[in-house]
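Holo model, 2-acetamido-2-deoxy-beta-D-glucopyranose. Inputs:
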Amino acid sequence: MAVLTYTPWLLAITEFLILASITKSEVPAIIVFGDSSVDAGNNNVIATLLKSNFRPYGRDFAGGRPTGRFCNGRIPPDFISEAFGLKPTVPAYLDPAYNIADFATGVCFASAGTGYDNATSAVLNVIPMWKELEYYKDYQNKLRAHLGNKKANEVLREALYLVSLGTNDFLENYYTFPTRRAQFTVQQYEDFLITLSGNFLGELYGLGARKISLTGVPPMGCLPLERTTNIMGHHGCMEKYNNVALEFNGKLKTMASRLNKELHGLRLEIADAYNIFNQIIRRPSLYGFEVVEKACCGTGTFEMSYLCSDQSPFTCKDADKYVFWDSFHPTEKTNHIISNHLIPHLLEKFR
Ligand SMILES: *[C@@H]1O[C@H](CO)[C@@H](O)[C@H](O)[C@H]1NC(C)=O
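Output:
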């Protein structure tokens, strides 16, 4: 029993061990790469038509403010940041309203419309992935100047990196333009994207990232825009696209376990958003939704970006009843449910 009698000395050691374990496991920042699923407003300041910094976008965001998020409110990185005890929103790197002090705990380099393939980002003249990495290098320099080398390197090493993209490579590029289809079967194109994804993650690792959560593609055949064009299928989901999504996500998993073996100290996890998203789409009423086939904005069939207008008399009153906000993007409520589903695993794995 003597062992259990805490002397002040033992108590001090215990406290030290607890503190050390907390410090060690902390995530000091959330750093985001990818497309519109995670873009917090970088497209606002670049020369693209793919923007969302006007109403009705952001109408349920704090202050009813459109930010450039493709949503009525917050997007998954915001919810994840909050769950890790950090800011309730992750700001866009190119947003002039923020500075390096803000970015020290969270920063977003994502660009709506981008993809792994350079040809995808070229379609709407958005930020390609290699350039998101250039901005990240620029950020590293600013962070080192701001915090000092030692502290900055620790933040960069312990931060949680969220990477989410891929849908645009298939829907905006492969199935829309003939160039890639003439070069690759869809399986070959998946493999091409997997190689690009692996290269991107390898570069990110080389720059110091260790904790990475990579999100695959959603049930992209069920996006309202794809249902609208599925005339032969009576506006049901394009199951062909969903099957590609599942196949691609499976290949991402294989790639991830290979990288985890090859790159010392890497903790790369695939965030499976497909399944929870698919459950919401198949049984919306279980989650309190009333509409899944159409989006809230406009007629809900094709509108996004500039076609989503505050003037449209069709836009829904209560976005919480809708799974989709515009024809390509989920509502804040859907984002929240998906995030809540992913968060326990992220906390367990990375905190
Ligand atoms: C994409 O473009 C960048 C910049 O031009 C280039 O460095 C990179 O190799 C390209 N990637 C592919 C796969 O072509």
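Residues 1-6, 16-24 have pLDDT under 50 and may be disordered. The longest strand covers residues 30-34.
Archived with the compound record.
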